[in-house]
Amino acid sequence: MNAVLVHIDFAHRGPWGKQMVGAFADLARSIADEPGLRWKLWLEDETAGRAGGAYLFGNRADAERYLRMHRERLAGWGVVDLDVTIREVNAALSALAGAAAGTALGVPAAVPA
Fold first, then answer.
1. Has domain 4-105 been given CATH number 2.60.40.1260?
2. SS3 per-residue string spanning the chain
3. What's the rounded Cα separation, in Å, for the pair 102 and 95?
4. Model confidence at 52, in pLDDT bands (50, 70, 90)?
């Protein structure tokens, strides 16, 4: 089963940087416990007024379940206009290109050359 990357991007008015950490630390801890989630990168662009994340899941079913739940959560905060992509990860090529912890992508420790 291939790992799946979900990218979510939306308009955001702040907080940013360290203030974002203080505001969303509990949410980050909660997200870390989501079934099938391997990691999340928190993304922010204060100049553009955009924020979001890149999420790596072990499978598409967990990714889609999380996305449904997260859309509802964001809608509760008034965030409804999301740019979302879901892509399968080519784990072998990603590991060869230096993806951190290729084993988190489902790649054996030794990737054929």
1. no
2. CCCEEEEEEEECCCCCHHHHHHHHHHHHHHHHCCCCEEEEEEEEECCCCEEEEEEEECCHHHHHHHHHHHHHHHHHCCCCCEEEEEEECCHHHHHHCCCCCHHHHCCCCCCCC
3. 5
4. very high
CA 99, 85, 55, 12 dihedral sign is positive
Give the integer Cα–Cα distance in Å for 51 and 41.
11
The pair of structure tokens assigned to 28 is 């980050």
For the chain, how big is the Rg over CA atoms in Å? 15
Structure confidence at residue 108 as a pLDDT band (50, 70, 90): low
The pLDDT tens digits for 58-90 are: 999 999 999 999 999 999 999 999 999 999 998
Tokens of 90: 């080519």
Domain boundaries, the chain: 4-105
